[in-house]
Amino acid sequence: MEIDVVTITGPKVVELRRCRAAPCGDGEALVAIKAVGVCATDVELFDGTMGYYHSGLSRFPLVPGHEWAGEVLELGPRVPEHLRVGQRVVGEHCTGCEPIEEEISARCRICCRPGGLLRCPRRKETGFFGREGAFQTVLRFPARQLHVLPPETPWDLAVLAEPLATACKAVRLADLAKVDNSRVVVVGDGAVGLLLLQLLLTSSAQRLRVALLGAQAARLQRAQALGAELAWDVAVPGVQTALTEEGELPSLVFEAAGTPSAVKLAVSVCAPGGTVVLLGLSGNLPVELCTDKVVLRQLTLRGSLSSEPEDWLRVREILSLGCLTSVVTHVFEGLQAYETAIEHVRRPEASYPHRAPLDSMFRFALLAALFALSRADSQEFLGAAAKIDVSEGQAKPEVQVTSEVTDASAAAARVSVSEAKEIDLNAVENPYLATGATAECLALIFMIVACVICYLECCK
Ligand SMILES: [Zn+2]
Ligand SMILES: [Zn+2]
């Protein structure tokens, strides 16, 4: 059987390949893929920035697609008895390390433990490493980790199984029974954020009140329609005041936006003694977090990765009940639309709290102008750092210092000389020569840019 497969061959390079489907092995099922979801992590996988590349787990070429739903096309020997051809199924994300047909007792020690699948260093994660993702017409998958959905389940709900499982795990780890003021915050208005919101509103014995903090007006409206008590645009100041009731902030916060600033925001809106569950991935960006804020307020930071088998049982239950509202925003037809879908999901540098890009540009232009001005004022410094006596392609070993310079600039000049010896010395002369006039010109240009940006910002 010939199948089409989307393959990422390098950062931002994708191919649609045609190849033969692998035969359905022992304990395996072939699934005809009907729908695949694209989330922010897919963008990171496509761009090559996802953390798994850095740790060496994921590598190119890679077949993406970790959020999927399909129909059983073929079953191999030794599969669970309840499976039939034609059933609507979804599949667990992490499939452990052992051939799935092995009896539990014969399986790897780490995989056998509760939550062990995701801790096993030899595990396979569908669409990330070890197992191809679902951006192909037919996927070969361990039958034991398939979950059957009612035949009437719409594909736009079934395709949410994986992010829903991720949300289920985060809620499970948060232990809702411990929420002491019945108020919860979700930071992030993406699919996982909106699924979390729905889960929280239905999961707990006590009626929870949920506030959702996001950056996109349409999604915030959606959150409100889904039952959020408060849907707050992070560009608007005063979120802490809005969340404070009788002097107290909510004691449970989920961070599902996956940006460094969202993590900081999540920590800042959590009550002392509370818990912040982090489930967003930022594409390996570092977070500048003052840990005093964690220590002094005795916060618990809890990471929650993907999902585990028990979360998938809950997913099957929720999808079978039909009480979930789909949060799919766009639908594209055919595997060739993969890149278009990625570009659609690619988030603008939405930051929490949101900062207008013009604001940042203004700051940059102003700083650049100040820097250029300071250079113009210290011509002596520039002269010292720049004057490398170059004649007939021969660098003199000593830097000609014409005035007092700092150690740093002299060192910089020495570096220039040693570099100059390696390359064409005549070409090096100009880049190191700068005059006060040039610096003043630059300062003027940057000032004008800053003024224009400031004007645009005020007109908004
Ligand atoms: Zn995802
Ligand atoms: Zn294992």
What would your notes on this structure say?
The radius of gyration is 28 Å and the shape is globular. α5 packs across α6, α5 (161-174) packs across α11 (309-321) and α14 (379-386) packs parallel to α15. The protein has helices at 40-47, 51-54, 109-112, 155-158, 161-174, 191-203, 217-226, 239-243, 260-268, 292-296, 309-321, 338-345, 357-377, 379-386, 407-422, 425-432, 436-459, and strands spanning 2-10, 13-20, 28-37, 67-75, 88-91, 125-126, 130-131, 138-142, 146-149, 183-187, 209-214, 230-233, 252-255, 275-278, 300-303, 390-391, 394-395. It has three domains: 2-159 and 328-345, Alpha-Beta Complex (Quinone Oxidoreductase, Chain A, domain 1); 165-303, NAD(P)-binding Rossmann-like Domain (Rossmann fold, 3-Layer(aba) Sandwich), CATH 3.40.50.720; 357-459, no CATH class. The longest helix has 24 residues, at 436-459. It contains 17 helices and 17 strands. Strands 12-11-10-13-14-15 form a six-stranded parallel beta sheet, sandwiched between helices. It has 460 residues and is an alpha/beta fold. 38% of the residues lie in helices and 18% in strands. Bound molecules: zinc ion (ZN) (2 copies). Residues 39, 41, 66-67, 163 line the site of one zinc ion.
